[in-house]
Design brief:
Elements lengths: L6 H10 L3 E3 L6 H5 L12 E4 L3 H14 L3 E4 L15 E4 L6 E4 L4 E5 L4 H9 L3 E2 L10 H6 L7 H4 L6 E7 L5 E5 L4 H7 L8 E8 L1 E2 L3 E10 L3 H14 L4 E8 L16 E8 L3 H8 L10 E2 L2 E4 H5 L11 E9 L4 H13 L6 E6 L21 E9 L5 H15 L19 H8 L3 H11 L24
Parallel strand pairs: 2-4, 3-4
Antiparallel strand pairs: 1-2, 5-6, 6-10, 7-11, 8-9, 8-10, 12-14, 12-15, 12-16, 13-14, 13-18, 17-19, 18-19
Helix pairs in contact: 8-11, 11-12
Organism: Haloplanus rubicundus
Keywords: FAD, Flavoprotein, Oxidoreductase
Family: Belongs to the oxygen-dependent FAD-linked oxidoreductase family.
Length: 473
């Protein structure tokens, strides 16, 4: 830490915390610094495990006084690594997991350490949901601040589109509530910027009637049919109703529990999604996706929405190695489809995939200037996921993702989904390209609420930008 942070000041800080202060010599240090992505191996000087807002205020004050690196940890489902910094202070909100539903108002209040499984459990009891990701272990904070692309996106929008208000501790230690009518500039930035303007301690979301049962599609096809399946998928999306939100994955997707020995090691094409409406109508709407070719396996069903949210959890275990990047695609021409098939075959890991997410619908009906989220113009999102177990294979898996992205930029304006950012290695260049004309506005908000750069010193894109949506991602 920096010299002004004396032992006496640290003692006073620790005494003020209701949570725990964890140092490198403490027994729980290695567990406390670990996040979901096993590639992340950072060593903070201090971890303040906050019990509530008062602890967050104390931690922000300490970081400002010490002029040290700072990172913010929410649910800890962290693909980019920005939840943990080296040689600085981690403001850890992972113990702050309360969720409260107002079924009459159709709203839910969520603390920053909660994961989507916590939210779905509470809202589902009332037949409600707010859009999350597609893996229930994902942290609410990071996913929302980066946008939040999930199973309800085309009908009910992004996670950040459903944000009514956010409780924030700013860099000067002030506690404010940001909404459309209070601190509106801060509220604009929180909806899709990735963070960097304060520590969000709680979120309030709109909810929608969903389920409890929904029609779902989860169908696998032979990899040698991937090109024609993607072409048929493209045609399907051209007329799909807003209730249908789907994505495709191309890769081996090795799983001996799902596939027979003859195909378990072969490349496959999968399509997954659900219908946010009447299940019987949904089954008819999704039926064409189950007939793109002769399927290898079809796990489509009418199932509980909360169960569908958890369907991919086991595919993304904590501690495995992950490196994900993305591009918003201008379209899905045959030439792009050919390259997707090529890169899926070239993946060095049997667990890696090249994914295409259908966007549009409710996402595109919100004006580009209404929030910081930058992907409303795109019909599709490309996600390139390297998932592997062997630490000696890091270089080849990271190179595969980067080479794929370099190739696929010919089909994109270069903007990215900030929840699939790699390790933010492009820095400000990534943000400038992604936010475009809104970049200067975002910088102004950051300078207003963090004039001394307290959160600008952290690793990654911004305070709270710690989520991977883990939507397959």
């Amino acid at each position: 830490m920096v010299p002004p942070l004396t032992d006496d000041r640290l003692d006073r800080f620790e005494a003020a915390l209701h949570g725990d202060l964890i140092r490198p010599d403490d027994d729980g240090y290695d567990d406390a610094r670990a996040v979901w992505n096993g590639m992340i191996d950072r060593h903070p000087a201090l971890i303040a495990r906050c019990a509530g807002v008062a602890d967050v205020i104390e931690a922000v004050t300490l970081a400002r006084e010490a002029d040290c690196p700072v990172s913010v940890r929410g649910g800890g489902h962290n693909v980019s690594g920005s939840a943990v910094c080296n040689d600085g202070l981690v403001i850890d909100c992972s113990e702050m997991t309360a969720v409260g539903v107002d079924p009459a108002a159709r709203t839910v209040w969520v603390q920053a350490g909660a994961r989507w499984a916590d939210v779905d459990h509470e809202t589902g009891a009332f037949g409600l949901a707010t859009p999350g990701g597609v893996v229930s272990d994902t942290g609410v904070a990071g996913l929302t601040l980066g946008g939040g692309i999930g199973h309800l996106r085309r009908k009910h929008g992004l996670s950040c589109d459903n944000l009514r208000s956010a409780e924030v501790v700013t860099a000067d230690g002030e506690f404010v509530t940001a909404s459309a009518t209070s601190h509106a500039d801060l509220f604009w930035a929180l909806r899709g910027s990735g963070g960097g303007v304060g520590v969000v301690t709680a979120f309030e979301f709109d909810c929608h009637p969903v389920g409890p049962e929904v029609a779902t599609c989860f169908t696998f096809y032979p990899g040698d049919r991937a090109t024609e399946c993607l072409q048929a998928y493209r045609e399907f999306t051209a007329t799909a109703p807003d209730e249908v939100s789907t994505l495709t994955s191309t890769g081996v997707m090795y799983d001996p529990d799902l596939f027979p020995p003859g195909v378990v090691d072969e490349t496959k094409f999968a399509v997954m999604g659900c219908y946010a409406g009447d299940p019987e109508t949904g089954e008819r709407a999704l039926a064409p996706l189950r007939e793109l070719a002769d399927p290898i396996a079809d796990y489509s069903a009418v199932r509980q929405y909360v169960d569908f949210q958890q369907l991919l959890d086991a595919d993304y275990p904590e501690g495995m190695r992950y490196y994900w990047k993305s591009l918003y695609l201008d379209g899905l021409p045959d030439s792009a489809i050919d390259r997707i098939a090529y890169w899926a075959e070239a993946a060095p890991s049997r667990l890696s995939t090249v994914d295409v997410w259908h966007l549009g619908g409710a996402i595109g009906r919100i004006g580009a200037a209404e929030s910081a989220f930058a992907g409303r113009h795109a019909p599709f999102l490309l996600g390139v996921e390297a998932n592997w177990k062997d630490p000696t294979a890091d270089d080849e898996n990271v190179a595969w993702v980067r080479d794929c992205l370099d190739d696929m930029r010919q089909f994109s304006d270069g903007s990215v989904y900030l929840n699939f950012p790699g390790f933010f290695e492009e820095g400000e260049a990534m943000r400038r390209t992604t936010f475009g004309p809104a970049y200067e506005r975002l910088v102004e908000v950051e300078e207003t609420y963090d004039p001394t750069g307290v959160f600008g010193r952290q690793t990654g894109a911004g305070a709270g930008a710690e989520a991977s949506e883990s939507d397959p991602e």
